[in-house]
Amino acid sequence: MSSTQKVHILITGANQGLGFVSAQQLLRQGDNLHIYIAARDPKKGQEALQKLNEQSDKKASNSVELVELDITNDDSIDQITKQVKQLDILVNNAAISGGMEEAKGASAIRKQLQNVYNTNIFGTVALTDALLPLLTTGTHSVKPAIINISSDLGSFGNQNNPDWRHYKIPFAFYPSTKSALNMFTTVYAKKLPDLRIISVNPGYTATNFNGNTGYKTPEEGASAYTHAILNFNGPSDTFVEQGGKTIPW
Ligand SMILES: NC(=O)c1ccc[n+]([C@@H]2O[C@H](COP(=O)([O-])OP(=O)(O)OC[C@H]3O[C@@H](n4cnc5c(N)ncnc54)[C@H](OP(=O)(O)O)[C@@H]3O)[C@@H](O)[C@H]2O)c1
């Protein structure tokens, strides 16, 4: 570890929502950070970059850079491995809900599931694999980490707890992608003991993801990310939420 190097953090899908707000919080709260904000739409990415650079409470030791990335596109993933030369923390945030109304009929079900899994799992795992060499080799300013943005909807413990506020939710496609993501977290954490690999639950937050119906503000939801990202010496193989509290797998 080298304490003189900046901490390089890449957040996927950071042009809006929780990824963007976490970047704002990191620029305000962290020190010596270089944040790559990834966006699939370069125009939206430029707008986000401008806002972050103009943020009045951004610390001078922190910097931000825009990278274009669509995690469903293998050429785009390949491109990012050429563009990003140093990485300490990968935040797998980009995801879609795929629609909470679940399709009926074999081909419609197949289409909807393939769509949501293509982003939330296939894209996330493919990107992680492509960036692993940057995390597992070279010198790092902090213990390299993969922060998988999951959801309490993907927790088997919650889904089986009658006291949990979303018990008996009537949809399973999106939640199952987050259960699958949690499995990647826990298996990779054991396979790669030199890395800190965790899942994070922001909680139900008002963003475009859910038509702004969530009960948490984006500041509250993103604080779960920011705490997890900056908790450089925290444990691996865990599932945490706001305030660093653990939640059941
Ligand atoms: N909001 C909640 O209540 C809640 C609760 C639990 C967990 N989560 C999780 O938190 C994360 C962020 O959610 P959010 O509420 O901030 O959602 P959001 O506002 O919809 O933002 C999602 C971001 O992901 C990007 N994205 C989607 N597909 C992509 C792709 N193929 N390649 C690259 N980027 C892509 C979007 O880009 P565009 O702007 O181009 O669409 C956007 O920047 C997700 O993993 C979500 O599952 C959210």
UniProtKB/TrEMBL annotation:
<comment type="similarity">
    <text>Belongs to the short-chain dehydrogenases/reductases (SDR) family.</text>
</comment>
<dbReference type="GO" id="GO:0016020">
    <property type="term" value="C:membrane"/>
</dbReference>
<dbReference type="Pfam" id="PF00106">
    <property type="entry name" value="adh_short"/>
</dbReference>
<dbReference type="InterPro" id="IPR002347">
    <property type="entry name" value="SDR_fam"/>
</dbReference>
<keyword id="KW-0560">Oxidoreductase</keyword>
<protein>
    <submittedName>
        <fullName>NAD(P)-binding protein</fullName>
    </submittedName>
</protein>
<dbReference type="InterPro" id="IPR036291">
    <property type="entry name" value="NAD(P)-bd_dom_sf"/>
</dbReference>
<dbReference type="GO" id="GO:0016491">
    <property type="term" value="F:oxidoreductase activity"/>
</dbReference>
<dbReference type="InterPro" id="IPR020904">
    <property type="entry name" value="Sc_DH/Rdtase_CS"/>
</dbReference>
<keyword id="KW-0521">NADP</keyword>
